[in-house]
Amino acid sequence: MYKENKIFLIIPAYNEEKLIVDTLSGVPDFVDKIVLIDDGSTDKTAEIVGKIQNNKINLVQHTDNKGIGAAIITGYKIAISEEADIAVVVGGDNQMDLKEMANFLEPIIKGDADYTKGNRFLTPSLKEMPSHRLIGNSMLSLLSKLSTGYWKIFDSNDGYTAISKKALKSVDWDQAWRGYGYNADFLARLNIFNIKVKDIPRRAIYIRGERQSQIRVGRYIWKVAPHLTRLFFWRLKEKYILRDFHPLVLFYLFGIIILPLGVGIGLFLLWSKIIGGAIAGSTAVLAALLIITGLQFLLFALFFDMEANK
After folding, report:
1. What pLDDT, in 10s, does the model give residues 156-209?
2. How far apart are CA 7 and CA 87, in angstroms?
3. Backbone angles phi, psi at 167, to 5 degrees
4. What is the pLDDT of residue 164?
């Protein structure tokens, strides 16, 4: 228990035989239960965990690799069924300092947030992050702001999180994304219920010579970007049409239609100029007007979206 709150620690693990013991050795005494989900590992992860003498550990094995989102959802469902007050998620790769867990719990206990997440960009340990991961995380965070509606949140791909019982029970986890990219999906689902989210500065642990995160940044962005796009439109529909209509949807709609139309006409005119064709002045003015108007609609939509999600 932590300040009279039942704390569950959820650890998704896939082929973490080298680092899972180190991860478990750092779990604070106040954690009531450790739900470790072996997500179809092909190494000795489950065997190693099974030999650890700790009655707090509940080892759950997926018969095949369902994805990190699916592993976390399995843990969340167990936390809900056993009435956990707060469920914390960390990876099984010893990349998250469990001594910092109280920092994630305090805002929830005080009522300042219902979901807390790590932000490695707010600590000096950022300089330890490999440059390609730094750039990739920055790009993903910018895309995720648009998709999730949490404009003040950064490092959205960080997997160190804590969630309250209230927030856990708000979401239909059967509908949530189960693979990589789950972070933004979970945030978007919380956003439509106006769940308060808070960034927590946290130190990232990078161990030389050990494979910790199994994400390949370029491939990850390529794979996740389409889902983030779908997530953006899903959030607009769920939050601003079905639950409570907001005119910012119209601003987004007009901007998304008008801006590409203006750009398309502009590119056509440019091509005509290159091949020696004549360009009508009125058509050029129309293209410029469409581009300017489309940009204005999008900027107003972004502004209203930010205001609605303060």
Report:
1. 888 999 999 999 999 999 999 998 889 999 999 999 999 999 999 998 777 655
2. 6
3. -70, -40
4. 98
Angle CA(183)–CA(189)–CA(192) in degrees, nearest 5? 140
Query: Can you give the length of the chain in residues?
Result: 310
- Cα–Cα distances (Å) from 47 to 16, 78, 145, 304, in that order, read 11, 22, 40, 52
Which CATH architecture fits 7-232? Alpha-Beta Complex (3.90)
Of the candidates 90, 69, 72, 157, the one whose C-alpha atom is nearest the C-alpha of residue 120 is: 157
Distances (CA, A) of 30 to 1, 33, 161, 261: 5, 9, 17, 58
Cα-atom radius of gyration of the chain, to the nearest Å?
23
Give per-residue pLDDT as tens, 105-127: 999 999 999 999 999 888 776 66
Instruction: Check: CB of residue 192 under 8 Å from CB of residue 147.
Output: no
- The β-bridge partners of 5 are 2
- The pair of three-digit structure tokens given for residue 262, joined into one six-digit string: 């203006």
Residue reference for tokens 């004549």 = 278
- Dig out the tokens for 196 from the structure: 């308060």
Q: Cα–Cα distance between 200 and 292 in angstroms, integer?
A: 39
How far, in Å, CA of 274 to CA of 126, rounded?
47
pTM across the whole model: 0.88
**Pairing assessment for the beta strands 115-119 and 161-164 based on DSSP bridges:** antiparallel
SS3 at position 243: coil
Write down the domain spans for the chain. Answer: 7-232, 246-308
